[in-house]
Structures are given as structure tokens and as C-alpha cells.
Amino acid sequence: MSPPKFADFSRIVFFTGAGLSSESGIPTYRGSGGIWKEYNYEDYACQRAFERDPEKVWDFHDKRRAAVAACEPNDGHRLIAVIQRAKPGTTIITQNIDGLHARAGGVDVIELHGSLWRVRCDRERTIRDDTSVPMASRKCTCGAYLRPDIVWFEDALSVDNLRRAERALERADLIVSIGTSGVVYPAADLPRIAVQAGAVSVEINLEDTPVSNLYQHRLRGKASDLLKSMA
Ligand code: APR
Taking the complete model, does pTM exceed 0.90, yes or no? Predict the structure, then answer.
């Protein structure tokens, strides 16, 4: 069965994970050399860790900001942005916090797990963009520690993002999942909405995942190559 062609669809949803950005030099989380192989998320990426030792958590995120700032979007990010420009009914839903979809020209990207480039003060209930590397100030003007506007483990996803994602998935005629291991919920269950709504479904990954059975087309290989094969 040859892979579907983007030209034949008008309401495409791209659902992306760390595997897409790995070709830009950003490590994934669970693959070989994965971030969670080196760092225990309980010490660096949850609210408890932040309350226990905010400086340690910031050191980790500052390192990630510096690493991502040194990377560029790749052909996969760029092709997705080109398709979105050509087909305004295209939606980008990502678990990535690196901001590379937007840097490649993607618009209205639904960042399910937040962003490295936004910070918030939970005391003043404010959120703002911050692209300083390293962080200019880890503290808010009120004196409280700022925290990265990232959905850490045990955090809830934003209801607004979930609703936007669900609306796009319900209307999709093509769902393309790219470079995600499909083990983190509730995100991993979202593509099922498009499949149940009758969309043609494609999973792009180097290997099978626990959710591969959901997809009609399981394309194995590098994201940027396989995306080009559908253009
Ligand atoms: N092309 C296609 N797939 C790839 C590539 C590539 N070049 N490189 C790696 N992959 C695949 C791997 O086989 C793996 O299935 O990408 C997947 C990456 O999986 P994870 O590291 O688990 O990343 P992801 O699924 O995005 O993680 C989900 O977990 O840690 C949390 O919040 C974090 O958003 C993250 C979430």
C-alpha cells in the first residue's frame, strides 16, 4: 500500500514528538541517549522537584534552552510549515517544547506540553515569553521563582489546548503521527479521535510503537525522508 499523498487532503493534522526534532540534534527522551536515561524526571521535571530545589531545576532547563537555541529546524519541520501555508486547514499538534515548528514557519502550533521559551509566575498568575539564554532572571519581580511554562510529569494539560486539538482531530481527513513513542498520556490517545472520525492514518517512526496498530500506514524510517515521500 503506497503512502498517501498530502495533495489529496485538505484537513491534515500533524501530531509530532521528539523524534522529529532529533534530526535537528535535540535528543529524544526515551531512545538511546534519551534525556530520561541521563536525568531522573523526579529531580528535574516535576513540581515537587521545583519546590524542593528550583535552582537545580533551572540549571537543567537552562542547559536544555542553550542546547535547543543552538539547533535549527530541519527539513521535516520546514515541509510541515510549507504544507500548512498551502493548505490552511492544516493543524500542527506537538508534544515538543523546543519551538522548532514555529521557527520553521508553522502557525498556531498547539504545544500540548508547553514551551521552553515561556515562563510563568504562579504567585502572580502571569505567563510571558522569554528567549534569553541563559535565563536573564530566574525570579519574578514579585520575588517568587519563575517556572518554565512546561507540562511536567503529574501536571495537567491545558484544557484550551486539549479542546483545540480535539476539534482539529474530529475534523481531520488525514492524521500523521511523527516521531513519538506513544507512551505518554493523555497525548498518546489523541490521534485515536481522528481515526475514529474516519481520517486516513499514518505513523512515521524508526520502529513500531505500542500504538502502531491504530494506524493504516506504518512508515518506518527517518521523519524528514518519509514526509518528503508523501509530498
Ligand atoms: N524519525 C522518526 N522517528 C524517530 C526519529 C526519526 N529521525 N528518531 C527517533 N524517532 C522515534 C523513536 O523511535 C521514538 O519512538 O521517536 C520516538 C521518540 O520517543 P520519546 O523519546 O518517548 O519522545 P516523545 O514520544 O515525544 O515523548 C513524549 O514524554 O518525556 C515526555 O513530555 C515529554 O513530550 C514528551 C513526552
Answer: yes
